[in-house]
Amino acid sequence: MPDGQGTVLTFTDITDRQQQEAETREQAWAEARADSPRRSALGDRATLTATIWAFAAENATDPQLTPAVLARQHHISLRFLQSLFSDSGHTPASYIRDQRLTHAKALLQRGETVTRSALLSGFTNAETLSRAFRRRYGSTPSKFRP
After folding, report:
1. In degrees, to the nearest 5, what angle opens at C-alpha 35 toward C-alphas 32 and 37?
2. Rounded CA separation 99/141 (Å)
3. Model confidence at 2, in pLDDT bands (50, 70, 90)?
């Protein structure tokens, strides 16, 4: 400017910071990919099914476990998960429910209350356990308590 006054602009080069953030993200993704089972790494259909069944049995007491979560956890579609289970005559939901019922029955036989058995087995409430229990075992859960 002719009178010597003006605005001074300064710029900060953020290229290094962006590069570092990109490297951090890539490293996190690489670790996640390394920890995740891949369909091709799991081998054949029988191996994949056994892996999924073991995971479902181990995590059945988690009330958040659903067929969709099970499929997502194993990096397969829900439809493919259903086809794996149909080979055995089960559905993913029925398998999870059977695992929960087996766990609840064991708790009831040890003297736990119906409500506590339901919650510890992954059911959202005692009524859901009671309905499923009656369908599977032909009697109410309270009759299984000592």
Report:
1. 115
2. 15
3. low
What's CA 13's distance to the chain center, in Å? 43
Which residue type, as a one-letter code, is found at position 11? F
In a 3-state reduction of DSSP, which class is residue 54? helix
Q: Which residue has the tokens 């007491």?
A: 61
- What is 41-146's CATH number? 1.10.10.60
For the entire predicted model, the pTM comes to: 0.68
Q: What are the angstrom distances between the C-alpha of 7 and each of 10, 75, 82?
A: 10, 56, 67
Q: What SS3 state is found at 138?
A: coil
Q: What number of other Cβ atoms are within 10 A of residue 115's Cβ?
A: 14
Q: pLDDT digits over 80-99, tens only?
A: 999 999 988 899 999 999 99
Q: What region does 119 belong to: left with phi over 0, alpha with psi -120 to 50, or beta?
A: alpha
Tokens of 130: 């009671």
CA distances in angstroms from 145 to 25, 31, 105, listed in the order given = 53, 47, 9
Under a CB-based contact definition with an 8 Å cutoff, are residues 101 and 133 in contact? Answer: yes
